[in-house]
Design goal:
Elements: H1 2-6, H2 10-23, E1 31-39, H3 42-62, E2 70-83, E3 86-95, H4 102-109, E4 117-120
Antiparallel strand pairs: 1-3, 1-4, 2-3
């Protein structure tokens, strides 16, 4: 793909990139949601995000139609993993849910306790 771009075959580059994104469920073929937590203890934060992820996975399984529409990645450390003695970790949700299911998506996000940042369609996932 990079060769297409460097050799100014932009249409080929675009078509291959679009195919790759659709096949792997990345924007614009899905909506990304980034959940960020911070805490002074990295292990504690990791375990808390793992608990949130498990709750979300149970919710998804209880709504049978969602199993193929939502993928949860992480927890993973943020690009800048520690600032001022606080660690930062993320969960990334890839969702193919359409507008008619926004209420269900919001119920899923209601499982996130207060104190965590929820960023819908984040500018970056670092």
């Amino acid at each position: 793909m990079l060769q297409d771009f460097t050799q100014k075959r932009f249409n080929d580059f675009f078509l291959k990139e679009a195919y790759w994104r659709q096949k792997r469920n990345w924007p614009p073929y899905c909506q990304l949601i980034k959940i960020t937590g911070s805490h002074k203890e990295s292990d504690y934060l990791y375990n808390q995000l793992l608990l949130i992820k498990r709750k979300m996975e149970r919710f998804i399984l209880s709504h049978h139609l969602l199993a193929h529409e939502i993928e949860i990645l992480g927890p993973a450390p943020a690009f800048v993993a520690k600032t001022k003695n606080y660690y930062f970790w993320h969960l990334i949700i890839k969702s193919r849910m359409h507008d008619e299911k926004l209420e269900v998506r919001n119920q899923l996000l209601d499982l996130v306790p207060s104190g965590y940042r929820i960023d819908i369609e984040p500018k970056d996932i670092l």
